UniProtKB/TrEMBL annotation:
Protein topology in the membrane: Multi-pass membrane protein
Recorded GO CC terms: membrane
Listed transmembrane segments: 6-24, 36-53, 65-84, 112-131, 156-173, 185-212, 240-257, 278-303, 323-350, 385-402, 408-431, 438-460, 497-516
Pfam families linked: HATPase_c, HisKA
Organismal lineage: Bacteria, Pseudomonadati, Bacteroidota, Flavobacteriia, Flavobacteriales
Compartment list: Membrane
Name this polypeptide is given: histidine kinase
Organism in which the protein naturally occurs: Flavobacterium sp. WC2409
Keywords carried by this UniProt record: ATP-binding, Coiled coil, Kinase, Membrane, Nucleotide-binding, Phosphoprotein, Transferase, Transmembrane, Transmembrane helix, Two-component regulatory system
InterPro entries reported in the protein's UniProt record: HATPase_C_sf, HATPase_dom, His_kinase_dom, HisK_dim/P_dom, HisK_dim/P_sf, Na/Glc_symporter_sf, Na/solute_symporter, Sensor_HK_Regulatory
Single GO MF annotation: phosphorelay sensor kinase activity
Length: 903
């Protein structure tokens, strides 16, 4: 492909990334940009051009040696639920914006330590950025079949650097508060992570199944190549130890690399996103490594003896078969892997450079007396300039120094440098005795050993076997040979440097921390870091400070960075949180910590401390006093927690009592209505009987025909009265357990059919159509027939009552299940409100949704039905229907139930 054509594709691709970032920033609260999958895929910024190209080169030359860099993270990732969650909580409550801020804050807000961590990160990561630029340049020339040009204006990488610097400076410095979430950058990185994986899988599938005939074919053909068996085995004890140290190195890298800290910690919106990340990210790494071996050894087979760069096999293989489209896709995947690392790393490093070097050691004095707008502009400009300078520095290193080294070699050197932060970083999380002096000594000593055993030989050139320094050691002292320090000769250069540098680092950190006590501020933050779960809700309470401070002075400092409006809002929140009178003029320890946190995101932890300290007068506190205050703070937090739990429990009990009281009121109302209805029902037949009796008594000459009619009324009303009393007695017997059921095996279809016959006249009077298609089918069930007739009769009577005056329909259905039979009775009248589905079976309940003005019935029918069905070990309920009307369902034991008599 021509250079112009590929440049056009790259310009279009970068433009799409710009648009994705712009779209995500505008929709920062959308589920499409703020979800656990975007978060998890953004963590794949770990997979750089080293992963995309370098792993193939390492697998082609050294076999399985590429695996430890991925095995380490996969092993340690399950601990994220504990370790990563703790780091996120500490960073969130303290407004931390970088790993330099994190370590600096833990060791007493140390300005020097923050600067030291920043320099270590710049020293380790800028060459790593240069590594990505090298991969972009090399692969561009492979795809276009052109030669690299020493003229920077004719070098494509120059313009790529400028585009990335513009992208990172625009979307990475949109907020003065560096702890703010950058949804645009994160979403763009996540999309790039998906694309680079897809393109890598495509080339893997192409090589494995189109160039070759599967994994077995590649293995068979590669097995005859020289040293195949030796390269593709872990080897003996020494090789296993090498693997171990490489795994440890990558474990540290997944926490300590500035880009990983930024994506995993600073850009985390919810702790729950970790649950997705702990399975999706390892799966991502696994998928990325499935086809490394086939591509590497497929390339070795195709290009045996040609001396080609094995890092670029994924491009050379499709190019060899004239597949230009696939070649460009693979190039875009590698380009994505490189630029995502460059963008995130430059943003993270620029923030550290600004907050931990330029501001605390540079222009912090000028910020004290400037307006908020001017301060914000200077801070943002310092970060933008930092991004440009870092990328330009990486470009210079790429041009001058690392043209002769592979992707893997520079990447591992970068990992070793960053690993020097491990003892102080993990000590900050788990060890309260760790001190600033111990951390500083450990980092400096470890970095010095790293320079001696690794960086110096690389600067000289490890391929120069004639170097006396490498071969014999300085002044000919063999024990000081950089690759065999103190006679340790069975480790490769990288594991060798890891072992000695971390050994000296860890030992000095521990020894000095134990031997020399840190100041009270270090011990204070040690408690707050190690016991973060205790202080997560009220961390200001754990901050120890004594002295004289005025809110108005601190407020003026805050206004110079936050602005007047935001400062007032922050103070209001603080006063509400701790129930503080807004008229109080003096500031306590809680307010000092609160103010420092507000400034930390803008200017870093050390600078925030310097600015706040400039307007307050702090008294010295002894270490025993700090411990006493912290103990009191712990007790207060425990008491507050108990009070909160008690308050919540009281609220819960209060709500339960309120609900119970409301239920009693409702029951009382229902009972009144029931008594009113029953009284009415009893009075009606009694009144009718009395009226007829009085007429018969007072008028002896009443005609015989009329006398018979009155006597018939007396009989029918007596029957009505008797039925009502029977219902009340039935219900009482069921509720007290005195009612017995006499169960036998019966045909439920026949029982229903007979019951329909008993109400046939009522059905005919209302012109209701009854559908019962299973009337002729024999369906056996186990029940007391007399009682079930009572249930069906009641349900049918209700259905008839509530059917519309015209076109009324009643549908009866029987469903046979394994253990029970289910009877459904539906009418097309007015339905039942869903909230009444349970209440209608209460004995004092009467539906208000009836077709007459006044509720009719005693309110006992469904209550008795429920008792009967439940005594049959069945269930009865009302169901919501799609069409109009109401459906009642009850179940009964099927034919297989043992016959017995139930009380």
């Amino acid at each position: 492909m021509s250079s112009i054509g590929l440049l056009f594709i790259l310009a279009l691709y970068v433009s799409i990334l710009f648009y994705i970032a712009y779209w995500a920033e505008k929709r920062s609260h959308s589920k499409w940009t703020n979800n656990p999958y975007i978060y998890s895929f953004s963590l794949a910024v770990y997979c750089t051009a080293w992963t995309y190209y370098g792993s193939i080169g390492l697998a082609a030359n050294s076999g399985l040696s590429y695996l430890p860099i991925y095995v380490g993270p996969i092993i340690i990732i399950p601990t994220w639920m504990i370790i990563l969650k703790r780091i996120i909580r500490i960073s969130r409550v303290n407004k931390i914006s970088s790993i330099a801020d994190f370590i600096s804050l833990r060791y007493g807000n140390s300005r020097f330590l923050g600067a030291l961590v920043t320099l270590i990160c710049i020293f380790g990561i800028v060459p790593y950025i240069a590594l990505q630029l090298k991969s972009i340049s090399d692969t561009f020339h492979i795809v276009t079949k052109t030669q690299s040009n020493s003229n920077i204006f004719n070098d494509t990488t120059t313009y790529v650097c400028l585009a990335l610097a513009l992208f990172a400076s625009y979307y990475g410095t949109r907020y003065v508060d560096a702890s703010e979430k950058r949804r645009g950058i994160v979403t763009a990185v996540a999309i790039e992570s998906i694309l680079k994986l897809v393109f890598f899988l495509i080339i893997g599938i192409y090589v494995t199944y189109f160039v070759y005939d599967g994994f077995g074919d590649i293995y068979t053909k590669a097995a005859i190549l020289e040293n195949f068996e030796q390269k593709n085995s872990i080897g003996g004890l020494s090789e296993s130890i090498n693997w171990f140290f490489l795994c440890v190195l990558s474990m540290f890298a997944i926490f300590l690399l500035p880009r990983q800290f930024h994506t995993a910690i600073i850009e985390n919106n919810k702790e729950t996103h970790i649950r997705t990340a702990i399975w999706l990210f390892p799966l991502y790494l696994l998928l990325f490594n499935i086809f490394v071996f086939p591509i590497a050894w497929g390339g070795n087979i195709l290009f045996e003896g040609q001396g080609l760069n094995s890092d670029t096999y994924s491009l050379l293989i499709p190019q060899f078969f004239n597949n230009s489209t696939l070649t460009v896709l693979v190039f875009l995947g590698g380009f994505s892997a490189a630029i995502s690392m460059i963008v995130v790393s430059s943003i993270a490093l620029a923030t550290m450079l600004s907050n931990n070097l330029l501001i605390p050691y540079g222009f912090i004095g000028s910020l004290e007396n400037s307006l908020q707008e001017k301060n914000s502009k200077r801070i943002l400009n310092s970060r933008k300039i930092g991004i440009f300078l870092l990328i330009l520095l990486a470009y210079a290193i790429y041009k001058i120094f690392i043209l002769d080294y592979t992707l893997v070699s520079i990447g591992l050197v970068s990992f070793v440098i960053i690993a020097q932060l491990a003892p102080s970083f993990f000590g900050a999380l788990f060890w309260k005795r760790g001190s600033k002096n111990g951390a500083v000594t450990g980092i400096i000593l470890g970095f010095t050993i790293c320079c001696y055993t690794l960086l110096a030989p690389y600067a000289i050139g490890i391929t120069k076997s004639t170097s006396l320094f490498i071969q014999e050691g300085p002044w000919g002292i063999g024990l000081l040979r950089p690759f065999q320090l103190f006679g340790l000769n069975y480790l490769d250069p990288i594991p060798h440097a890891v072992f000695w540098s971390l050994l000296f680092n860890l030992m000095s950190y521990a020894a000095i921390s134990v031997s020399f006590k840190g100041n009270y501020r270090e011990r204070n933050y040690a408690e707050m870091f190690v016991d973060i779960d205790k202080y997560i809700t009220n961390h200001e309470n754990a901050f120890v400070w004594k002295g004289t401070a005025y809110i108005s002075d601190i407020q003026k400092v805050l206004q110079r960075f936050l602005g007047e409006e935001r400062t007032k809002r922050a103070l209001t929140i603080f006063n509400l949180k701790y129930n503080i009178d807004k008229n109080i003029t003096t500031a306590d320890a809680r307010f000092i910590k609160f103010a420092e946190n507000l400034l930390t995101g803008h200017i870093g932890t050390a600078s925030a401390k310097i600015l706040i300290s400039s307007v307050i007068k702090e008294d010295k506190i002894s270490l025993p006093e700090v411990l006493r205050i912290l103990e009191e703070s712990k007790e207060n937090i425990i008491i507050n927690k108990k009070l909160t739990d008690t308050s919540n429990e009281l609220k819960k009990i209060s709500q339960q009592l309120k609900n119970a009281n409301q239920e009693l009121i409702n029951k009382d109302i229902q009972k009144d209505e029931f008594l009113d209805t029953v009284t009415h029902e009893l009075r009606t037949p009694i009144t009718a009987i009395r009226a007829a009796s009085e007429i018969l008594h007072d008028d002896e000459d009443i005609p015989e025909e009329l006398k018979k009619r009155f006597l018939q009324n007396i009989i029918s009303e007596s029957d009505r009265l008797n039925r009502l009393i029977d219902k009340i007695l039935d219900l009482e017997k069921f509720e007290t357990g005195k009612q017995k059921l006499y169960l036998s095996k019966n045909n439920i279809s026949k029982t229903i059919k007979n019951t329909i016959e008993s109400v046939k006249q009522l059905i005919k009077n209302k012109n209701i159509e009854v559908e019962f298609h299973q009337a002729q089918k024999e369906i056996k069930a186990f029940y007391d027939e007399e009682r079930i007739v009572q249930v069906i009769h009641n349900l049918l009577s209700n259905a008839i009552k509530f059917c519309p005056e015209k076109e009324g329909e009643i549908t009866i259905t029987i469903v046979e299940n394994k253990d029970v039979i289910e009877v459904q009775i539906h009418n097309n009248g007015k339905g039942i409100k869903e909230e009444d589905f349970e209440a209608i079976f209460d004995k004092f309940y009467q539906s208000r949704n009836q077709n007459v003005k006044k509720p009719i019935g005693s309110g006992l029918g469904l209550a008795i039905c429920k008792q009967i069905i439940e005594h049959h070990k069945g269930k009865i309920w009302a169901k919501k229907t799609k069409t109009e009307g109401a459906t009642f369902i009850f179940t009964l034991p099927n034919y297989n139930t043992t016959e017995t008599t139930l009380p």
